[in-house]
Amino acid sequence: MPTSDRLESRRPYDGSLLWQGAVATEAEVAAAVARARMAQRGWGAASLDDRLQVVRAFRAVVEAEAEAFARLIAEETGKPFWEAKTEVGSVAAKVEISIQAHAERTGSREAVFKSDPKGATQALRHKPHGVLAVLGPYNFPAHLPNGHIVPALIAGNAIVFKPSEQTPAVGAFMAGLWAKAGLPDGVLEVVQGFAATGRALAGADVDGLLFTGSAPTGAALARQYAETPGRILALEMGGNNPLLVWDAADVEAVALIVAQSAFLSAGQRCTCARRLIVEDGQHAALLDAVVALADRLRIDEPFAEPQPFMGCVISDRAADGLLTASQAIGGKTIRPLLRLREGLPFLTPGIVDVTGVDVPDTELFGPFLQIVRVKDFDAAIAAANDTRFGLSAALLGGDRALYERFWAGSRAGVVNWNRPTNGAASNAPFGGIGLSGNHRPSAYYAADYCAWPVASVEAEAPFIATPVGIADA
Ligand code: NAD
Ligand code: SIN
Asked: Which fold has domain 241-417?
């Protein structure tokens, strides 16, 4: 059993032990931050080219160790091996995308300052914050922390990273890849532990915190950081994401997109569709196709052959929570969320019609889809926005005019048409509104929160026009 000073990670699909280690104490967290602060001086002062050399070496190490990396991700999360490989691909691809984003969004500019009579130079440059804490979630234990770490290192920050307590092995492995790439000691520190270690890190002497995780944790961090508004806080949280189907002709294609949106990664993506909104009395064939498809999804261990569509959820505790929450919702059950194997967290997809039911506006982070029937398209948009979250949304069907109505009315950071709600692109900004984030989107815009701008007017000799109101000497 895990104790408060030991952390164990078990393969969720069979319960076997994968990794164990010590939980960092508050003093150890403070020491890690102090080491990072020392190391940041050299890293931040190094030339951008020198930093990029290390970051590109990291990409090469990731590519060289891709198989072992993906295997470990699959073992620790229970996600299918094919999917873990795509996660490793995203980790490697993040490097060039972040280098480009750094140059475009936080690069340097110098120009003649036109309003200066002696032709001073106006400069815009960026500085790193210093030491940044990174807190990661378990569902993408490599790709999502990496999405903060790579741009933060490029900008010249040092990092103290606490992986999720559910995926410490992947966090430790990824830090090892940075060491192999030649990142100087101390520039990336890892502290392992539960929420208490996260709280200790958030409260330590860091210059900011980059967070991906659940809305309740993000809200707790926002409260903690309210006392220190000078520190950067980037929050990427969950969603209660709507998927509208309207005037859709191609039932098979739409059903596939619905299944992928709702059930990919066993529903453990922040962008997964949680609510399917349809016109009342329409789309009976589509709903039948979605249910038929849900029944055909292969659910199995990560390395099973043939490869599964989805694996288990992260833990028995998570499975129990989802089963309890799904049963409490009410509505008309079309497919119940069920435990597939006794004592293990494999769940079959749940589909429930909740039209007219007062469902709590929370994120159920698993393979569970709620159907809502509405009378017209305005009601559909209102239902889509009837949430405190605002991460992703999609419309399936309709023409461009209908999509433009949907886009204009949608309150979400990702709005798609005839494509799934999930599978966000790293070369676009990624974040949401409301309980989904704090307007510091990640992915392509992560560069923005990793550095702060300094505006300068510069000249070789002091000069200003004599100010008004100075008497003759
Ligand atoms: P979580 O909030 O439980 O944990 C995330 C991290 O925060 C972990 O390292 C945890 O130990 C730490 N933590 C927990 N409580 C803390 C506290 N009070 N103070 C400081 N640190 C604390 O999230 P999770 O369950 O690991 O991940 C799943 C969640 O992440 C889902 O809600 C999902 O939607 C969200 N998510 C969001 C995005 C996004 O980019 N918007 C992406 C992936 C996952
Ligand atoms: C996630 O970050 O949880 C999902 C990203 C995506 O697939 O859109």
From this structure: Aldehyde Dehydrogenase; Chain A, domain 2 (3.40.309)
pLDDT in tens, 19-46: 999 999 999 999 999 999 999 999 999 9
Q: Name the nearest CA neighbour of 143 among 164, 116, 118, 114.
A: 164
- Length of the chain measured in residues: 473
pLDDT band at residue 1 using 50, 70 and 90 as cut-offs: very low
Question: Hey, whose CA ends up nearest to atom 11 of ligand 1?
Answer: 195
The residues spanned by each domain of the chain are: 6-237+437-457, 241-417
Is 342 labeled as catalytic in the residue annotation?
Answer: no
Computed over every residue of the chain, the mean pLDDT equals 97
**Cα dihedral: 413, 418, 423, 429 (round 10):** -30
Distance between CA 94 and CA 99 in Å, rounded?
Answer: 9
> What would you measure as the largest C-alpha separation in the chain, in angstroms?
93
Q: Pocket of ligand 1, candidates 162, 164, 362: which has the most ligand atoms within 8 Å of its Cβ, to mutate?
A: 164
Is the bond leading into 229 cis (omega within 30 degrees of zero)? no
| CB atoms closer than 10 angstroms to residue 456 | 12
Residue 236 appears among annotated catalytic residues: yes
Q: How far apart are CA 230 and CA 14, in angstroms?
A: 46
73-113: pLDDT as tens digits: 999 999 999 999 999 999 999 999 999 999 999 999 999 88
pLDDT tens digits along 124-169? 999 999 999 999 999 999 999 999 999 999 999 999 999 999 999 9
pTM exceeds 0.90: yes
Give the class (CATH, top level) of 6-237+437-457: alpha beta
Give 236 Cα–ligand 1 centroid separation in angstroms.
9
**CB contact at 8 A, 240 and 275:** yes
Q: Buried (b) or exposed (e) across 40-59, using 16+ Cβ within 10 A?
A: beebbebeeeebbebbebbb
